[in-house]
Every structure is written in structure tokens, then in C-alpha cells.
Automatic annotation (TrEMBL):
<keyword id="KW-0489">Methyltransferase</keyword>
<feature type="domain" description="Ribosomal RNA small subunit methyltransferase E methyltransferase">
    <location>
        <begin position="90"/>
        <end position="264"/>
    </location>
</feature>
<keyword id="KW-0963">Cytoplasm</keyword>
<keyword id="KW-0808">Transferase</keyword>
<keyword id="KW-0698">rRNA processing</keyword>
<protein>
    <recommendedName>
        <fullName>Ribosomal RNA small subunit methyltransferase E</fullName>
        <ecNumber>2.1.1.193</ecNumber>
    </recommendedName>
</protein>
<comment type="similarity">
    <text>Belongs to the RNA methyltransferase RsmE family.</text>
</comment>
<dbReference type="InterPro" id="IPR046886">
    <property type="entry name" value="RsmE_MTase_dom"/>
</dbReference>
<comment type="function">
    <text>Specifically methylates the N3 position of the uracil ring of uridine 1498 (m3U1498) in 16S rRNA. Acts on the fully assembled 30S ribosomal subunit.</text>
</comment>
<dbReference type="Pfam" id="PF04452">
    <property type="entry name" value="Methyltrans_RNA"/>
</dbReference>
<dbReference type="GO" id="GO:0070042">
    <property type="term" value="F:rRNA (uridine-N3-)-methyltransferase activity"/>
</dbReference>
<dbReference type="GO" id="GO:0005737">
    <property type="term" value="C:cytoplasm"/>
</dbReference>
<keyword id="KW-0949">S-adenosyl-L-methionine</keyword>
<dbReference type="InterPro" id="IPR029028">
    <property type="entry name" value="Alpha/beta_knot_MTases"/>
</dbReference>
<dbReference type="GO" id="GO:0070475">
    <property type="term" value="P:rRNA base methylation"/>
</dbReference>
<dbReference type="InterPro" id="IPR015947">
    <property type="entry name" value="PUA-like_sf"/>
</dbReference>
<dbReference type="InterPro" id="IPR029026">
    <property type="entry name" value="tRNA_m1G_MTases_N"/>
</dbReference>
Length: 276
């Protein structure tokens, strides 16, 4: 079984030193997991001496550790190995329309587990839910917490970015920018003629010397319960987006995004190797 993952908080300590991240913790050093994550490990999960755990910084750095001491909400870890996982060659982003209940949160949770690199809340024309004022801040905070928990569940070292909510005008502008920079925007639509499996994906950064390390982005756009309006589809396709269908069945807004992300990351080769 893979080791459980805990996200590092700024300001951990190592043999008397302090650091804002994990870069200063080589193999053999001591890392103290405290705060909310330390309490979760020591009190909630009741982890014990000798167990293996991973600590990640959310940006690809992973410390493989063994527990040396548990003192309530403070867990002392001996670092056995330091692993730097590479950044994605193609950034896969889920643009999820706001949906009633918790369907949008269900979508970003599963999308994070299968490999999304970022999520964008979209205030679509037919979204019943509206993010304004305090509700917008509280709702985005829930999305951040959902993505964080899903990252740990999936044992990921990279924490997907959660953007601020955008409306359709903002999404059209984002589409133009992504397409102009060599990326792709795919609008999932039941009436599309092309299947997602046949959509041309951007050339990965590692294979395109002209990008100077800048990874292209793929936006996957999923509408709300009532679907994407014809006006939205027209505006997005005029900006350079492509429409695609997943298959013969119409999926819920909570399901379509994760399924599409899973198919795309498989095409990009992320599921072909061994776990990090």
C-alpha cells in the first residue's frame, strides 16, 4: 500500500532549523509535522512509530519519511528519500460550471483524483447557483478544501490550482489566450460530431523546443445541469474552442468532467508509468 500523504505547512522545523518549504530537508534530516496536518496524522489517524508517510509541498516535491516520534499533534519524521516530480508537459484544466447541490464539488473532487492540474469555476448562463460577495469567497474556499483533500487521497505531490470564478465573457477571453499560445479548448457537447478521443492535443513542452519550457494548456469545459447554451457554444467556438462528445450517453455535470480528464491524461501518457 502506498504511504499516506500530508501537505506541508510553511515553517516546519528540521534539526533546529526553520524553512518555508521542503527544499531544505535532505535525506537523513528530521521534519516535524505539526499544525492541522500533524493533528490529523497523530490524533485523528493515530499513526505510530515506524510507519511510512509522505510529505509534499503541493508543487511536486515529496519527502518519503518514517515516523520516529508521535507527541499528540506533533509527529517527528525522518526523511528517507527526496523526490522531485516533474511539472506536467501539458496542463489539463477543468472549467466546471457552477451547479446546484454539491455536484460541482463532486466534479472537481474526482477530476483532482484522476489528474486535473487546475480547476476553474464558471458562472454559466444556465447555472442555477450564483457566486456573489461573501458567497463567492465561501464557495471558493470549499472548492480549495475539496481539491486539497482529493490531492491527499490520490497521493499526489502537486496541488491543483483553483482559479477565481469567471463568467462566459471571461471564459471566451481565456479561450482566445489559450488557443493563441498553442493550447486547446474543448467544450463537451452532446451534439458534437467529433469524439473526445479524436481531438488533436497540443504538443507537450518537452517535445517542442520553441516553447522554452512553457507547457501548453488544455481547457475542458463542462456546462451546468441545463447544458451549455447555443449562444455560449457559438461564442466559444468563434474564439477557437472545439466541441467534442464523450460517447453515446449524456453524463451529469458531476460526471462528465472527471471522465473527460481521465481520457485525456491517459492519452497524454500519465497513466502508463509507475506511481511516483
Amino acid at each position: 500500500m502506498s504511504a499516506p500523504v500530508f501537505l506541508a505547512e510553511a515553517g516546519g522545523s528540521s534539526d533546529g532549523a526553520t524553512a518555508s518549504g521542503l527544499a531544505g530537508y535532505p535525506a537523513g534530516s528530521l521534519y516535524v509535522l505539526d499544525g492541522a496536518e500533524g493533528r490529523h496524522a497523530g490524533v485523528v489517524q493515530r499513526r505510530g512509530v515506524g510507519e511510512h508517510v509522505d510529505v509534499v509541498d503541493g508543487d511536486g516535491l515529496r519527502l518519503r519519511c518514517v515516523i520516529e516520534l508521535v507527541e499528540a499533534a506533533q509527529v517527528s519524521l525522518r526523511v528517507e528519500e527526496v523526490v522531485q516530480e516533474p511539472a506536467p508537459d501539458v496542463v489539463v484544466t477543468l472549467v466546471q460550471a457552477l451547479a446546484k447541490g454539491d455536484r460541482d464539488e463532486m466534479a472537481i473532487e474526482a477530476a483532482t483524483e484522476v489528474g486535473a492540474d487546475a480547476v476553474v469555476p464558471w458562472q454559466a448562463e444556465r447555472s442555477i447557483v450564483v457566486w456573489r460577495g461573501d458567497r463567492a469567497a465561501k464557495s471558493r474556499a470549499r472548492w480549495l478544501a475539496t481539491v486539497r483533500a482529493a490531492t491527499k487521497q490520490a497521493r499526489r505531490a502537486r496541488l491543483p490550482r483553483v482559479d477565481v470564478a469567471i463568467d462566459t465573457r471571461g471564459l471566451v477571453e481565456r479561450t482566445r489566450e489559450v488557443v493563441a499560445s498553442g493550447g486547446a479548448v474543448i467544450v463537451l457537447h452532446e451534439e458534437a460530431s467529433a469524439p473526445l478521443a479524436e481531438v488533436t492535443l497540443p504538443v507537450p513542452a518537452s517535445e517542442d523546443g520553441s516553447r522554452a519550457g512553457r507547457a501548453p494548456e488544455v481547457l475542458v469545459v463542462v456546462g451546468p445541469e441545463g447544458g451549455i447554451s447555443d449562444r455560449e457554444v457559438e461564442a466559444l467556438t468563434e474564439a477557437g474552442a472545439l466541441t467534442a462528445r464523450l460517447g453515446p450517453h449524456v453524463l451529469r455535470t458531476s460526471t462528465a468532467g472527471p471522465v473527460a480528464i481521465a481520457l485525456l491524461v491517459q492519452r497524454l501518457g500519465r497513466w502508463d508509468g509507475t506511481p511516483a
